[in-house]
Design goal:
This protein is of the alpha+beta class. It has helices at residues 2-12, 20-25, 80-94, 106-109; strands at 35-39, 45-56, 62-66, 70-71, 99-103, 122-123, 133-137, 148-152.
Length: 164
C-alpha cells in the first residue's frame, strides 16, 4: 500500500487528493479483486490501477469507477499502463460487472473502448470537466438507466485496515 501511494504521488503529484474522483474513493476499499500493480524485475511497484464500486445516481445501477491509473514517470510509454488497463477491464468483465467509468483523456482511454457517449446524464460529486467523464459498457444496456450524481458504494475502510 505504501509503495502504491508513493508511486501515485510521484506520477500525479499532491493535487491528486483534491480531485472529484478521490471523493468517491475516500474511506472505501477497492472493489473485491480489482486492485492491481505492475512490478519491475526487482519487485518494485512501477504501475497501479484500481476499480471502485459506485452507484449511478440515487438508487441507480451499480458500476465501477477506474482510477487512478499511474505508471512510474520514467517508464511511461512502455506499455505498462495499457497492460494494466486491459487486465483491469478483463477482470471486471470476468467478475460480472456491467460498466466502468473514469475521468480521463478520451484519446488515451478511447483505445480501450471508453467514450463520453453514455455519460451525458451523469455527474461527478464536485468539479470536473464533463467531456472527460467516460464510460465503457461491459454488458450491453448496463448504462441505459444511468442518470444523476455518481455515488460511492462498496466496502468501507475500517480503522483496523491500517494496522500492519
Amino acid at each position: 500500500m505504501q509503495a502504491r501511494e508513493a508511486l501515485l504521488d510521484r506520477a500525479m503529484g499532491p493535487k491528486r487528493r483534491k480531485k472529484s474522483s478521490e471523493k468517491l474513493r475516500r474511506g472505501r476499499r477497492p472493489s473485491e479483486g480489482l486492485a492491481f500493480v505492475a512490478r519491475d524485475p526487482s519487485g518494485a511497484v512501477v504501475g497501479t490501477v484500481r476499480l471502485w464500486d459506485v452507484t449511478l445516481g440515487e438508487g441507480g445501477p451499480a458500476a465501477l469507477l477506474l482510477g487512478p491509473l499511474a505508471v512510474e514517470p520514467g517508464l511511461k510509454s512502455g506499455g505498462i499502463g495499457s497492460a494494466l488497463m486491459r487486465h483491469a477491464i478483463g477482470e471486471a468483465a470476468r467478475l460480472g460487472h456491467g460498466a466502468i467509468l473514469l475521468v480521463g483523456d478520451a484519446p488515451y482511454y478511447g483505445r480501450f473502448g471508453f467514450s463520453a457517449d453514455r455519460t451525458g446524464s451523469l455527474a461527478m460529486p464536485g468539479p470536473y470537466e464533463r467531456h472527460r467523464l467516460l464510460a465503457l459498457e461491459l454488458k450491453e444496456g448496463s448504462l441505459d438507466a444511468a442518470a444523476g450524481t455518481i455515488r460511492a458504494a462498496g466496502r468501507k475502510v475500517k480503522a483496523l485496515d491500517f494496522v500492519a
